[in-house]
Amino acid sequence: MAEQVLNIGGMTCQGCVNSVTRVLQALPGVESVAVSLEKSEARVRYDPSRVAPDAFRQAVQQAGFEVR
Ligand SMILES: [Cu+2]
Is 23 helix (H, G, I), strand (E, B) or coil? Predict the structure, then answer.
């Protein structure tokens, strides 16, 4: 397993946290997601043979948030 921390812009409430968590968790190869509103970050544990961090970025952006 690998871990990637994404810096996310635009999250303002628990609903945003839930949205980001949901889109990341939906990706194949993602094992776990921990999103922090205070730190504006998402910590993703994933299988690097199944998914690449580029997919995280795209999923978060498509959900309407920025990845810094
Ligand atoms: Cu929100």
Answer: helix
Q: What does the alpha-carbon distance between residue 9 and residue 6 come to, in Å, rounded to a whole number?
A: 10
Cα(22) to centroid(ligand 1), Å: 13
Whether the pTM exceeds 0.90: the reply is yes
Tens digit of pLDDT for each residue in 16-49? 999 999 999 999 999 999 999 999 999 999 999 9
What CATH fold (topology level) applies to the domain 2-67?
Alpha-Beta Plaits (3.30.70)
Give residue 2 CA to ligand 1 midpoint distance, Å.
28
d(CA 61, ligand 1 centre) in Å: 14
Residue type at 51 in one-letter notation = V
The DSSP code for 22 is H
% of the chain surpassing 70 pLDDT: 100
